[in-house]
Amino acid sequence: MGDFLFPIDSGAALAIHVALSAGIVAAIIAVAAVLREKRAGARPDTPYESGVLPAAPPQGPQNAPYFLIAALFVIFDMEAAILFAWAVAAREAGWTGLIEAAIFIGVLLLALIYLWVDGALDWGPGERQ
């Protein structure tokens, strides 16, 4: 439909798209440079959040279970996205696709059982060794 409204070569359309994207990025950077607050004597190694300088030094590294939960969420979220894509194309995939999805879910369950037995899901206080 685009060919009827704007008869243009696909290479020219790509060049226009890249040029407009680069122009928008450059404009955003220029506006941010003009509008940002200038701090006299600011050190580049100090964090600056919400206009407030930190009152105390950082308290050290985050708790490891926090990152474990985040990693497990990302892993299982991606697997859910893969299964959703399979569900959309389930009719076209047929029995072969169903068997492949069952194997995929089985591997996921084995990984979850391994993590559970290993204690990776025990992030509360208690008997973790």
TrEMBL record:
The chain crosses the membrane at residues 12-35, 66-89, 95-117. It holds the Pfam family Oxidored_q4. Keywords: Cell membrane, Membrane, NAD, Quinone, Translocase, Transmembrane, Transmembrane helix, Transport, Ubiquinone. It comes from the Bacteria. One of its GO terms (molecular function) is NADH dehydrogenase (quinone) (non-electrogenic) activity. It is found in: Cell membrane; Membrane. GO terms for cellular component: NADH dehydrogenase complex; plasma membrane. It is a multi-pass membrane protein. It is an enzyme of class 7 (translocase). Its EC number is 7.1.1.-. HAMAP family: NDH1_NuoA. Belongs to the complex I subunit 3 family. NDH-1 is composed of 14 different subunits. Subunits NuoA, H, J, K, L, M, N constitute the membrane sector of the complex. NDH-1 shuttles electrons from NADH, via FMN and iron-sulfur (Fe-S) centers, to quinones in the respiratory chain. The immediate electron acceptor for the enzyme in this species is believed to be ubiquinone. Couples the redox reaction to proton translocation (for every two electrons transferred, four hydrogen ions are translocated across the cytoplasmic membrane), and thus conserves the redox energy in a proton gradient. PANTHER family: NADH-QUINONE OXIDOREDUCTASE SUBUNIT A (PTHR11058:SF21), NADH-UBIQUINONE OXIDOREDUCTASE CHAIN 3 (PTHR11058). This is NADH-quinone oxidoreductase subunit A. It comes from Rhodopseudomonas rhenobacensis. The gene is nuoA.
